[in-house]
Specification:
It catalyses: 5-(2-hydroxyethyl)-4-methylthiazole + ATP = 4-methyl-5-(2-phosphooxyethyl)-thiazole + ADP + H(+). Catalyzes the phosphorylation of the hydroxyl group of 4-methyl-5-beta-hydroxyethylthiazole (THZ). By secondary structure, this protein is an alpha/beta fold. It contains eleven helices and ten strands. The chain has an eight-stranded mixed beta sheet with strand order 2-1-3-4-5-8-9-10, with helices on both faces. The longest helix is centred in the last third of the chain and has 20 residues.
């Protein structure tokens, strides 16, 4: 697995895929800097007038409903339809699905256009039409409770990632559980949003979305796990984490994978 991740990491640096991000204001900076650290090129837009042009030149489209309103949904809906029509992969982060009817309905609508979805357990449960227990954008449900929901969502030829203390990935046929990460990660605003951004960059380089999700989730978790070993708290963790995305310690990562 680590050799495959190294290969994709090299591709990212070489290809510098353009990731169009229609996302929230709260975590935009963190996502952009993390994509840059990987070697990808982030592009954010707030004008629907340019969406068709931007989708056409991007290698992946990432939609995150964190700060949701009617203007955003019009832009996201437009981007999703264009991405589907020209074969650009669409990655969805259904932030806060289950917290309100507006968020849940928006996530369900955009889900129909997406090929890859990444959310916490409560979001995935709500997206599948069940009742997840959420605290706003935070999950109150364990990952294991959302696995059946992820399988239902994946039946429509989707790849679904549930993030948590252990991450679960499925495409409806293959499943993967990954144990990497740090308990400091939930203390940083935008860590989940950034995980989906990193996932989008891997999807931009790999045609197999399940493999892209497994590689991205593994790499993201290992960068966090190794950052934890060198910091005392959330503020320095964020800085070290981005540094790890940029310049990974492959030897330490190999040791961490071997220990599992």
């Amino acid at each position: 697995m680590l050799d495959q991740i190294k290969s994709t990491f090299t591709l990212l640096k070489q290809q510098k895929p353009l990731i169009l991000c229609l996302t929230n204001y709260v975590t935009m900076d963190f996502m952009a800097n993390s994509l840059l650290a990987l070697g990808a090129a982030p592009l954010m837009s707030e004008s629907q007038d340019e969406i068709e042009e931007l989708v056409s030149i991007s290698q992946a489209v990432y939609i995150n409903i964190g700060t949701l309103n009617d203007v955003f949904m019009d832009r996201a809906r437009c981007a999703a339809k264009i991405a589907n029509s020209i074969g650009k992969p669409l990655i969805l982060d259904p932030v806060g699905a289950g917290a309100s009817k507006l968020r849940t309905s928006a996530a369900m609508e955009l889900f129909s256009y997406a090929q890859v979805i990444r959310g916490n357990a409560s979001e995935i449960i709500s997206l599948a039409g069940a009742n997840g227990s959420t605290k706003g954008v935070e999950s109150s449900d364990p990952v294991t409770k959302a696995i059946n929901s992820a399988h239902r969502l994946a039946k429509s030829q989707k790849t679904v990632v549930i993030s948590g203390p252990e991450d679960f990935i499925t495409n409806g046929v293959d499943d993967k559980i990954l144990p990497f990460g740090s308990n400091l990660m939930p203390l940083i605003t935008g860590m989940g949003c950034t995980m989906t951004a990193v996932l989008s960059a891997f999807v931009a380089c790999l045609s197999n979305h399940f493999q892209a999700a497994v590689q991205a989730t593994t790499y993201f978790g290992l960068c966090g796990q190794l950052a934890h070993e060198h910091v005392k708290g959330p503020a320095t963790f964020k800085e070290t984490f981005i540094n790890n995305l940029f310049d990974p310690d492959w030897i330490s990562m190999s040791k961490a994978v071997t220990r599992v």
